Amino acid sequence: MSAVLFDRLVVIGAGLIGSSIARAVREKELATTVVVADRDAAVCARVRELGFAHEVTEDLAAAATGADLVIACVPVGASRAVAEQVGPCLKPGAILSDVGSVKGAVVEAMAPFVPAHAHLVPAHPVAGTEFSGPDAGFASLFENRWCIVTPPEGADEQAVDRLSGLWRAMGANVELMSAHHHDLVLAITSHVPHLIAYNIVGTAAELEETLASEVIKFSAGGFRDFTRIASSDPTMWRDVFLYNRDAVLEMLGRFTEDLTALQRAIRYGDGDALFDHFTRTRAIRRSIIELGQETAAPDFGRRAAGKPRHEQS
Amino acid sequence: MSAVLFDRLVVIGAGLIGSSIARAVREKELATTVVVADRDAAVCARVRELGFAHEVTEDLAAAATGADLVIACVPVGASRAVAEQVGPCLKPGAILSDVGSVKGAVVEAMAPFVPAHAHLVPAHPVAGTEFSGPDAGFASLFENRWCIVTPPEGADEQAVDRLSGLWRAMGANVELMSAHHHDLVLAITSHVPHLIAYNIVGTAAELEETLASEVIKFSAGGFRDFTRIASSDPTMWRDVFLYNRDAVLEMLGRFTEDLTALQRAIRYGDGDALFDHFTRTRAIRRSIIELGQETAAPDFGRRAAGKPRHEQS
Question: Among 1.10.1040.10, 1.10.3660.10, 2.60.120.200, 1.10.10.10, what is the CATH number of A181-312?
């Protein structure tokens, strides 16, 4: 049913997202040639074994030469280095994109290396699991997920349309917004929740030994899901916090102020304040259900229906 | 396969937990007579319609008269009032228990009303969903969940064994510990995680209107699961925080100190500190998986396998 959208499509970085894109494009035949480039020789060897790419190489520049679309699927902090290597090789009309969870800093880092005859169209698929590496990816990861495309001012409309079309063909719902706005929205919907999860798991890890072992044993009371998020890729998340610093600090400041108020209500036994707060938060939940953004099970945005267990969990 | 363990078993409060106990006991025929007592006439009417109890009454004292086991399934703050009404009616050898998420304060509140000829054996099934009321319960809610029994010092061993046997018969794994220790463990595994979830959803609710609507739209990036927890019963959770105040404040203090350190690392761009923290938290996750306490999907301790969707979600 789908048509070939790109001739030579290059994915740089064969982690969870990169390998999922390569698999989806290959499976749906959205590109004539799917190229995976990764600087790690071991990763390249594994991708060859898995067989979801037509070409596999450690040479990013060679891969990008003649490409119609290059998607950098690397931690945000590595975007600049990728753009520096790949930019000069881009042919006229080529599109350079990425999948980073932060957009403002990425555009700033990559833009200087994109020649005038090529197009930078950053994007962020709001999808993932807590697993990493080429084995973790699967073709349906983006189905029914949002992909936020953040075209810089004056971006080529046709290039934006072509990239959006690819994401739609992989099953995603595409939304356009500015990089700045994206970073604010994601700070509160994803970055701060991840930081909090990392934090509470860290707090538990510091507990007295007996207590810590029981925390693990009785983790099902709520804690366990935090540990799941807190096992996400450390490099990726380090970069998210470093590169979306301002928005994260802003939202974290609000979070802390509000938590301090709740803490005070607990200390002074202000049951009415607690009850009011806990009642108000129900309305947000209702809105999410009404928007159809709810699934049967919580999944931190990570589960595709019908996946084998190791991919789901 | 199961035997009748109690003659007259009384559940007080037909909410999620109470109605699940009544259903499980009825379904597995663990008691000759299952009585549900609830002070709310509308709830009693609904329980009669649902038909999972042999007797339904608004009169707690009448229900408890002649009972072999009375389980208070009410918000922690209502335990005292229940014990006051029910205590004087308890026959020799009768057991009074509860299901509260806080144990120290509950024992203190209930103990004075339990006659010397009866036995107080508090318990806490670590299970639930974010739904409330008699319709929300289901018989398999406790299967493969922990039930923590916290016998007061000098508690009657036979009574503790009988109550533990009931929970095992309902599918739970039983663990004994002191009320004080229970409250510390639950503060970090359940109470603080819930408070944090309530808090971040509240923070989002205060955002500028445009931003708030997008937070809902893109909630799948992590935020959505917090909204699920934050839609739990406000009365129950108000009481948890009021009655487990000291342990919650202690754990919250540690959480905040740690979060402040992470915030500082973000502000000053200390990537190594972030990376180290995010790597350490993976070990905790591994321990949980090794203990077999992990399921395919995150569920905040709330999902029983094989349940219909509305009960699962």
Answer: 1.10.3660.10
Q: How far apart are CA A115 and CA A84, in angstroms?
A: 11
Task: Summarize pLDDT for B262-273 with one digit per residue, the tens.
Answer: 999 999 999 999
Terminal Cα-to-Cα distance of chain A (whole angstroms): 30
| Model confidence band, residue A217 (pLDDT cutoffs 50, 70, 90) | confident
| A144 touching chain B per CB within 8 A | no
Cα B205 to Cα A287: distance, rounded to the nearest angstrom: 11
Q: Is B83 on the interface with A (CB under 8 A)?
A: no
Whether residues B301 and A228 touch (CB distance < 8 A) is answered with no
Tokens coding B35? 């009585």
CB contact under 8 A, A242 and B196: no
- Give the amino acid at B66: G
The Cα A49–Cα A151 span in angstroms is: 36
**pLDDT tens profile B49-99:** 999 999 999 999 999 999 999 999 999 999 999 999 999 999 999 999 999
- Residue B129 is predicted with a pLDDT of 83
**Contacting residues of B for A280, CB less than 8 Å apart:** 202, 205
Provide, as residue numbers in chain B, all residues whose Cβ is less than 8 Å from the Cβ of A245: 266-267, 269
Residues sharing a CB contact under 8 Å with residue B6, sequence separation 6 or more, in sequence order: B30, B31, B32, B68, B69, B162, B166
Q: Which CATH class is domain B6-177?
A: alpha beta
CA distance B312 to B127: 12
Per-residue pLDDT reduced to its tens digit, A150-202: 999 999 999 999 999 999 999 999 999 999 999 999 999 999 999 999 999 99
Buried-state track B203-222, b at ≥16 Cβ within 10 A, e below 16 = bbbebeeeebebbbbbbbbb
Q: Tell whether B295 is within 8 A of chain A (Cβ).
A: yes
